[in-house]
From TrEMBL:
This is Chromosome partitioning protein ParA. It comes from the Bacteria. Gene3D superfamilies: P-loop containing nucleotide triphosphate hydrolases. It comes from Thiobacillus denitrificans (strain ATCC 25259 / T1). PANTHER family: P-LOOP CONTAINING NUCLEOSIDE TRIPHOSPHATE HYDROLASE, PARA FAMILY PROTEIN CT_582. Residues 3-178 form the AAA domain. CDD domains: ParAB_family (cd02042).
Length: 261
């Protein structure tokens, strides 16, 4: 049975896509079978996996509208060694196209159910909004992974996200939980970052990942080559940090490294 995680934060540019692509590649490196679903019309995760978003068809859009099955839309990330459901700007219209359709919140959950046995992990890269696409991800997810920068307003920004997760729990998915808060682009020399990090631990306890992702320029460069960082520079700090995150994810899930789930 696969573990299904939504990677979400309605704040833009906090490292959701970087985490989705590199956690997917790192879990694959550790022998896990991984599917990454790109739920953002920006298509950044698609491109970061080495797939050209402009010509990708079908995409998650056709899946949500029940025009194709998920098995017919997935592609392979060659450099990442995992499967991808691509996305592009066409998905921006999904909210409107879905509005009058039945079970519009549950489309993705239903589609994923058909392939769940083929994967150990399914990761969903969410857009920077709490819209119908994100709700579809939360309805399908067992847990939410929240990447965040340790900035002044970081905790306040979490309030809306936690409220949305609560609503989804009441209405659509009683089992959803927060898998973890991941500190990204972390600068250990910053006193503010340390303070916010301490506050996070006070509020969320062991739901804060032990692994911290440092600011690392190789992580920012890799997507422009269509590569996860492991395939771009496997010795860099960013690559090591995401491998640590994958190991921590397996540990939390009770899976020994190298063993299939
Ligand atoms: P959006 O909300 O637009 O979808 P996002 O939350 O998915 O954004 P990313 O695209 O992953 O965020 O990251 C935003 C920018 O920061 C990108 O240019 C990315 O390359 C860079 N970045 C992400 N993580 C790191 C890091 N640890 N070190 C350096 N740069 C990073
Ligand atoms: Mg993104």
């Amino acid at each position: 049975m696969s573990r299904i995680f939504a990677i979400a934060n309605q704040k833009g540019g906090v490292g959701k896509t970087t985490t989705a692509v590199n956690l997917a590649a790192s879990l694959a490196e550790l022998g896990q079978r991984v599917l990454l679903a790109d739920l953002d019309p920006q298509g950044n995760a698609t491109m970061g996996c080495g797939i050209e978003k402009r010509t990708a068809l079908p995409t998650v859009y056709q899946i949500l509208l029940n025009q194709v099955g998920l098995a017919d839309a997935r592609m392979r990330s060659g450099p990442g060694h995992f499967d991808v459901i691509p996305s592009n700007r066409e998905l921006a219209g999904a909210e409107i196209d879905l509005v009058n359709l039945e079970q519009r919140d549950l489309r993705l959950k239903t589609a994923l159910a058909g392939v769940a046995d083929e994967y150990d992990f399914i990761l969903m890269d969410c857009p920077p909004t709490l819209n119908l696409l994100t709700v579809n991800a939360f309805a399908a997810a067992e847990a939410v992974l929240i990447p965040m920068q340790c900035e002044y307003y970081a905790l306040e920004g979490l309030t809306d996200l936690v409220a949305t997760i609560k609503k989804v729990k009441q209405r659509l998915n009683p089992d959803i939980r927060i898998e973890g808060l991941l500190r990204v682009m972390f600068d250990p020399r910053s006193t503010l970052a340390q303070q916010v990090s301490d506050q996070l631990k006070q509020h969320f306890g062991d739901r804060v990942y032990d692994t911290v992702i440092p600011r690392n320029v190789r992580l920012a460069e890799a997507p422009s080559h269509g590569l996860p960082v492991l395939a771009y520079d496997r010795q860099c700090k960013g690559a090591k940090a995401y491998l640590d995150l994958a190991e921590e994810t397996l540990r939390r899930a009770g899976i020994a490294v190298g063993e299939a789930a």
